[in-house]
Protein backbone atom coordinates (compact mmCIF):
# COMPACT_ATOMS: atom_id res chain seq x y z
CA UNK A 1 0.00 0.00 0.00
CA UNK A 2 1.31 3.45 -0.89
CA UNK A 3 1.97 6.07 1.76
CA UNK A 4 -0.94 8.35 2.62
CA UNK A 5 -0.80 11.78 1.04
CA UNK A 6 -3.49 13.45 3.14
CA UNK A 7 -4.54 13.84 6.75
CA UNK A 8 -8.09 14.20 8.02
CA UNK A 9 -9.15 16.90 10.49
CA UNK A 10 -9.34 14.18 13.16
CA UNK A 11 -5.76 13.08 12.45
CA UNK A 12 -4.51 16.68 12.70
CA UNK A 13 -6.38 17.00 16.02
CA UNK A 14 -4.61 13.91 17.33
CA UNK A 15 -1.16 14.91 16.03
CA UNK A 16 -1.35 18.39 17.58
CA UNK A 17 -3.52 17.39 20.57
CA UNK A 18 -5.91 20.28 19.93
CA UNK A 19 -9.66 20.76 19.59
CA UNK A 20 -11.60 20.51 16.35
CA UNK A 21 -12.24 24.30 16.23
CA UNK A 22 -8.49 24.89 16.58
CA UNK A 23 -7.84 22.75 13.49
CA UNK A 24 -10.48 24.70 11.54
CA UNK A 25 -8.87 27.99 12.67
CA UNK A 26 -5.53 26.77 11.25
CA UNK A 27 -7.25 25.84 7.98
CA UNK A 28 -8.77 29.33 7.75
CA UNK A 29 -5.32 30.88 8.27
CA UNK A 30 -4.06 28.82 5.31
CA UNK A 31 -1.05 27.61 7.32
CA UNK A 32 -0.83 24.56 5.02
CA UNK A 33 -2.49 23.25 1.86
CA UNK A 34 -5.87 21.56 2.05
CA UNK A 35 -8.88 20.77 -0.09
CA UNK A 36 -12.56 20.56 0.75
CA UNK A 37 -14.40 17.55 -0.63
CA UNK A 38 -18.09 17.23 -1.50
CA UNK A 39 -19.99 16.94 1.74
CA UNK A 40 -17.75 19.45 3.51
CA UNK A 41 -14.96 17.07 4.52
CA UNK A 42 -11.41 18.41 4.50
CA UNK A 43 -8.19 16.71 3.46
CA UNK A 44 -4.91 18.29 4.49
CA UNK A 45 -1.78 17.81 2.40
CA UNK A 46 0.55 15.57 4.42
CA UNK A 47 3.71 17.10 2.95
CA UNK A 48 2.46 20.66 3.41
CA UNK A 49 1.38 19.97 7.01
CA UNK A 50 4.56 18.07 7.92
CA UNK A 51 6.72 20.91 6.49
CA UNK A 52 4.68 23.49 8.44
CA UNK A 53 4.98 21.44 11.65
CA UNK A 54 8.76 21.10 11.24
CA UNK A 55 9.06 24.90 11.02
CA UNK A 56 7.19 25.55 14.29
CA UNK A 57 9.23 26.76 17.26
CA UNK A 58 9.89 24.18 19.97
Automatic annotation (TrEMBL):
<dbReference type="InterPro" id="IPR041657">
    <property type="entry name" value="HTH_17"/>
</dbReference>
<protein>
    <submittedName>
        <fullName>DNA-binding protein</fullName>
    </submittedName>
</protein>
<keyword id="KW-0238">DNA-binding</keyword>
<feature type="domain" description="Helix-turn-helix">
    <location>
        <begin position="7"/>
        <end position="56"/>
    </location>
</feature>
<dbReference type="GO" id="GO:0003677">
    <property type="term" value="F:DNA binding"/>
</dbReference>
<dbReference type="InterPro" id="IPR010093">
    <property type="entry name" value="SinI_DNA-bd"/>
</dbReference>
<dbReference type="InterPro" id="IPR009061">
    <property type="entry name" value="DNA-bd_dom_put_sf"/>
</dbReference>
<dbReference type="Pfam" id="PF12728">
    <property type="entry name" value="HTH_17"/>
</dbReference>
Amino acid sequence: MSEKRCYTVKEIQEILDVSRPTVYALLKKKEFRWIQLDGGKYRISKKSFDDWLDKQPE
